[in-house]
Amino acid sequence: MTAPLVLDGVGVELAGGRRRERVRVLDSVDLVLAAGRVRALVGLNGAGKTTLMRVALGMLRPDRGSVEILGSPVQTAGPQVWRRCGHLVETPFCYPELTARENLHAAATLRGLSSEESRRRVDAVAELLGLEKWLDRRARTLSLGTRQKVAIGAATLHEPAVLILDEPANALDPRAVLGLRGLIRDLAAGGAAVLVSSHHLDEVARMADGIDVLHAGCIVGTLEPGGADLERRFFDLVLAAEDQRAEPTGDEVARP
Ligand SMILES: Nc1ncnc2c1ncn2[C@@H]1O[C@H](COP(=O)(O)OP(=O)(O)OP(=O)(O)O)[C@@H](O)[C@H]1O
């Protein structure tokens, strides 16, 4: 059986150079996301994490390589595929004039949940993330972190088979970070394939089965979450990759 998400030789170039020339943002990225596993994607600012996730979700067409999601090429995947996916990349799902509860029910309806299932799942994610007392407030009146909780709830309440979250813990309070971790681990235990990006090595070490390090658009290694000195191992990989880059670019990483 093929894995729920497969990126094969993905390359992306975007017009981001000093004279608007196209620069390589992802370079020959191979990634296999297995069912029941949580993979974390870590890297410095600008490494390409969000771009990789956008490509994985068909939001950006790669210049080279291919992406397959739940057995379909990503560019032609239909509603039956997207209904089984959850994501939080860039703009969070949140209609400002709807209450938090209405937003969550809208997300559940889009994914084909019955009203009874929807009520059960909204209550469950609200409890896990500490959202209960905000459920009947309009989203536009909620704090940034509380809106982030609504967006995480919307991405997860249908128990997706593939879940892609770009820095989901940003703006969350410590209780919600714990809840998020529990939510992700529960979904993976139920068979979901999860890809999550973060800047916090300690946090991903607590939730991921493997940590892929992205540097300058390449996956330069995978770290085991257990064991000591994760930060040191991360920088060793990044600096070794930096040393291998042929041309100096002016944005080299300072040795910590
Ligand atoms: N639309 C765009 N046009 C041109 N360049 C872009 C575009 N989007 C991203 N880039 C460039 O692609 C590179 C990777 O950006 P990306 O947002 O994927 O990195 P990231 O690892 O998610 O960064 P961060 O940790 O800061 O969120 C950066 O150099 C960025 O400037």
General shape: globular
CATH-level-4 superfamily name: P-loop containing nucleotide triphosphate hydrolases
Largest sheet: 6 strands, mixed
> Whole-Å distance between the termini?
43 Å
Number of discrete domains:
1
CATH fold category name: Rossmann fold
Count of strand segments: 10
Which spans of ≥5 residues are poorly predicted at pLDDT below 50?
A: none
User: Over the alpha carbons, how many angstroms does the gyration radius reach?
Assistant: 19 Å
Structural overview:
This protein has a single domain (5-50, 58-197), classed as P-loop containing nucleotide triphosphate hydrolases (Rossmann fold, 3-Layer(aba) Sandwich), CATH 3.40.50.300. Helices cover 35% and strands 24% of the residues. The protein has helices at 49-56, 79-82, 100-110, 115-129, 144-156, 174-189, 201-207, 230-244; strands spanning 5-15, 22-33, 38-42, 64-69, 72-73, 85-88, 162-166, 193-197, 210-215, 218-223. The strands form two sheets. It has a six-stranded mixed sheet, sandwiched between helices. The radius of gyration is 19 Å and the shape is globular. The structure holds adenosine-5'-triphosphate. Residues 14-16, 25, 43, 45-51 line the site of adenosine-5'-triphosphate.
Q: What is the compact description of this entry?
A:
Keywords: ATP-binding, Nucleotide-binding, Transport. The protein is an alpha/beta fold and 256 residues long.
